[in-house]
Every structure is written in structure tokens, then in C-alpha cells.
């Protein structure tokens, strides 16, 4: 598989992670509606709804990060940036990826893996509600989502770097 093919595959993974993240909102809303009806109509609140919606929303947010980067929808401070030429913007982006983004992603993946291992070894459970679900699957979402974000960052960095050095527009 050629290098551009690998970049395309990564980009498609980001696309699908975003679509999956979008659909996670449906069971989240259903759990919230169920809880509201159970609590206020039948006076029978659940012990699981808060944590299910908490976990689902976190999944929605985290799995959507790579998709959001693919479409350049993360927050950016454009006070000065927008006044630069596209090539200068690409240079700034490339330096930002190398100095800020990639080191942070590596730290977050490494730290997230440690959190998952620790949680798995101690059979960690939530103490928020009486349901007490295990936490390692929820925590495993963190390094996975940061890995997806990092991979999409590589694709974006290569594109921005090519603009910065004049290979692309």
C-alpha cells in the first residue's frame, strides 16, 4: 500500500469514528428520556441512567475529536493567524503540530494506557451510583480516542507541511 493510501485509510477511520460518535447521541438521549419519565412520571428513578449517559456523552465527545480535526473544526484563535498567507499559516500549523500537538498526544496516550492498566488490575468500579459499573472499558476510550486523534493529526500535519514547503496549495 502506498503512503498516500495509508493516509487515506487513516482519514476514512476518522470519518467513520465521527459517524459512530454521532450515533452515540441516540442511545444517550433515549437513556435520558427513560430516566426523566421513570423519575417524574412513575416516581421510580433508575440507578444506572446517570452513569450510562455520562459514559455515552464522553464517548460521543472523545470519538468525535479525530473527525473534528479532519474537517478543521477545532477552536482556533484567528486574531493574527487569519492575516497570514496560506503558506505562513501552514508553517505555523506545522510547527504547532511538532511542538505542541504530537508531544501532548503521546503523553495522553501513554498516560491513558497506564490508567486503563491500573483500572483493569484493580477491577476498578465507579462509586458515583449504587450500580457501580466497571471503569476500565470507559477509561480505555481515552487512549483509543487520542490514538485516532494523533493519527488524523499525522495526516493533517503532512498536508500542512506540504503547503508550508510549497509542494501543495
Question: Which features does this protein show?
Answer:
single chain, 169 residues, mainly alpha, 5 helices, 0% strand, elongated
Major sheet description: none
What is the terminal-to-terminal distance? 25 Å
Tell me the overall shape. Answer: elongated
How many strands in all? 0
What is the radius of gyration?
A: 20 Å
β-strand amount: under 5%
The topology string of helices and strands comes to HHHHH
Q: Quickly give the structural class.
A: mainly alpha
Describe this structure in words.
It is a single chain. This protein is mainly alpha-helical and 169 residues long. It has helices at 3-40, 49-63, 65-70, 86-121, 136-164. Helix 1 (3-40) packs antiparallel against helix 2, helix 2 packs parallel to helix 5 (136-164) and helix 4 runs antiparallel to helix 5. The radius of gyration is 20 Å and the shape is elongated.
